[in-house]
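User: Can you predict the 3D structure for this chain?
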Amino acid sequence: MLIISEKLNSSIPSVLEAFQAKNDSYLVDVIKAQEAAGAAYIDINTALLQENELETMLYAIRLVKEHSRLDIMIDSPNVPVILEAIKEAEGRNVIINSVTLTDRINELLPVLQENPALGVVGLPIGEGGIPKTAEERVAVAGVLIQKLVDNGITEDRIYLDVLVEALAVGDENGKVVLDTLRLMKEAFPNVKTTGGFSNISFGLPKRMILNTAFLAMAMCQGLDSAIMDPAPDSMKKSYRAINALLGNDEYCMDYIDEIRGEV
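Assistant: Here is the predicted structure, written as structure tokens:
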């Protein structure tokens, strides 16, 4: 499973402060810690910098390229920022986060068509907002996928967001995501799945207990990637254990290495 770090996001107060201060040391420490914990991509969101969003996005991309081998997820509500960020990220694999069935998809289609290596996250959100049931989410996803495919975007470049919402505000929110994953895999086997998996525990105590349990359940449903923080010790150990139990860790070597690292 592909791990996409969530930790370079301006919605995190300490990261926002570091972005504002151009605190290279703090940000590089975050980048290196996420890479060491197993992240393959890092999601960069500088939207809360407002008029300085683009400048800060380019600055963050340069730090990632200079201090890690991480690939880049460009996370912005502004198309001009995305277009400039793609240029700055040249030399790394890039995923755009995200498109929905709005005018925004039409603005981004040309760059997706011109750059066949670009991945794109699709949010299956309809006119009424986030669909409440798994079946509704899959139906909207089908329309979004067809729109992308009709415009030359192959299914293997598409990451369908399964729309993880906090369990604290809806008893069924975890189950709906798991059902969505199962149905999406049945309906669109060549499309990848993703989502912000730490959202599930927002507002609840001992969040890592829920995060690790939910990740295990989602991986059992075929989850392809997760936007998450892989660095906490309990998450690192749980992730290695899940992979071993799913048969994705030959002779359990990654799990054994992780446990031996305690000594």
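The chain has a mean pLDDT of 96. Residues 86 and 115 are 10 Å apart (CA to CA).
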